[in-house]
Amino acid sequence: HRPLLVDDLGQPADRPGTYPCLSAQCSGHSTNPTDLAEDRAAVPDTPVLANTGVREDTVDQILAIADGVCVGTSLKRDGITWNAVDPERADRFMSAVHRVREAVPA
User: Fold this and answer.
1) Which parts of the chain fold into alpha helices (H)?
2) How confident is the model over 5-51, as pLDDT tens digits?
3) What are the CA-CA distances from residue 36 to residues 25, 50, 51, 74 (Å)?
4) CA distance 70 to 30
């Protein structure tokens, strides 16, 4: 594995707002938490986003490591990337995110 850096998508590496987006092999596949933690440790002063495979049942574990997430497939109808967003899945996902946020001390 290796982090997919935003600058890999054509932006200069020294551009403000360039953050590591740590990805699994492809959309919908989970980021390995151990890999995520190792990559996070390599850039301790940089915001890190988990870019793939974040689901309602894993968002608490992922947000314990990453500063944020990019999410798509897990919100789609039947969990299929190309389907439309399922509002019920999105609501459940955001409820899980809110529970994680509420548990973080201010």
Assistant:
1) 33-42, 59-63, 87-103
2) 444 444 444 555 555 556 555 565 677 788 888 878 877 777 788 87
3) 13, 8, 10, 19
4) 12
